[in-house]
Amino acid sequence: MDYVLFGIQGSGKGTQGKILAEKLHAAYFETGGELRRLAAENSPLGQKVKSIIDAGHLVPNEVVMEIVEDFIKRAGRTDTATPIIWDGIPRNKEQNASFTSLLQKFNRPYTGIYFELSREEAENRLLKRRICSKCKTVYPANYSKALACEKCGGKLATRADDNADSIRTRLDIFFKETLPIVESWRTADKIFTVNAAPPITEVTKELFSRLSV
Fold it and tell me: Which among 11, 69, 98, 103 could bridge 117 via Cys, Cβ 3.0 to 4.6 Å?
């Protein structure tokens, strides 16, 4: 079973997704991470991605789907015994249609997990979270240790796009383009909701309980 993560920015879905991937020994797909990985490798698909990014363009949906298909095929992931955690896709109606078609093509059963958080709390978290300048690990607003990354020792700083205007724009896009997908999956009984407001450990406990893992 594959798990497709949805949640407003700041909901912690990436953090929970990585925890779940480790628990299930699952592959983990994060759209931005895959784009960066491919752009750095000398493959036809990687060079295509790099040329688009270097030109300052958004990666079109058809290329995103090439990336998804490449991820499924790589390392024998057409074997459905190895689950995939999908983070950051689908983001809009067009991606949803293409993405679910690909999962069906490869006979991959899936269900969605929606990490629900109020807009007010999301804005608060995004304004206060920090990111490692070296390895790009994101630390939540309540991270209270020294201003250094636990993984690599890099300096922690606020992301350049974590300002009030940028955050409002990103949240507007989520409510306009992504939340309708959540609602359509809910109607189809293909998704369940986890309360993302409590601390990380409590959210993880609820998530594992819902999945019986």
Answer: 11
Mean pLDDT value of segment 94-118 = 96
Cα–Cα distance, 203 to 196 (Å, whole number)? 6
* CB of 35 closer than 8 Å to CB of 197: no
* Model pLDDT, residue 131: 80
Of 156, 122, 125, 169, nearest in space to 7 by CA: 122
Averaged pLDDT score across all residues of the chain? 90
* Torsion angles phi and psi, residue 160, rounded to 5: -60, -35
pLDDT given at position 155: 82
**Which residues contact residue 199 at a Cβ distance below 8 angstroms, ignoring those fewer than 6 apart?**
142
Span 2-211 CATH architecture: 3-Layer(aba) Sandwich (3.40)
Give percent of the chain above pLDDT 70.
94
Q: How many CB atoms sit inside 10 A of residue 109's CB?
A: 10
Q: How confident is the model at residue 164 (pLDDT cuts 50, 70, 90)?
A: confident
- Give residue limits of the domains in the chain: 2-211
Task: Take residue 3 and report the two structure tokens written for it.
Answer: 């798990």
Global pTM?
0.86
